[in-house]
Amino acid sequence: MLAERRIEVEVEDHAAAARSLTLRAEELGGYVADATTHENAEGCRSGSLQVRVPAAGFRPILAAASGLALRVATGEVLW
Questions:
Q1: What's the sign of the alpha-carbon dihedral 15, 8, 57, 31?
Q2: C-alpha closest to that of 50 among 40, 65, 63
């Protein structure tokens, strides 16, 4: 079974959140397939992680991402 979900979260420390989600994905038997980071002129960072985990890790990785968030901006099931 394949599923994809996109969520946007606001975090205090982008680098720390990325490290935490990378470790959690690995614990769940998955990996980070793609990662990007951007910094604007004011020094604010944004980025994205594409995480792939087995089906059993789908809810736990979403919970990990949501748990790191100061705010969850959006969430949608893509397929």
A1: negative
A2: 65
Is 55:45 a contact under the CB 8 Å cutoff?
no
Residues 6 or more apart whose CB falls under 8 angstroms from that of 21 comprise 32, 49, 51, 61, 64, 65, 68
Map tokens 């985990």 to a residue.
53
Residue 22 in contact with residue 48, Cβ under 8 Å?
A: no
If DSSP states are collapsed to H, E and C, what string results for 23-77? HHHHHCCCEEEEEEEEECCCCCEEEEEEEECCHHHHHHHHHHHHHHCCEEEEEEE
Q: Which two tokens stand for residue 30?
A: 């998955």
pTM of this structure: 0.80
pLDDT at 77: 53
Task: Quote the pLDDT of residue 73.
Answer: 74
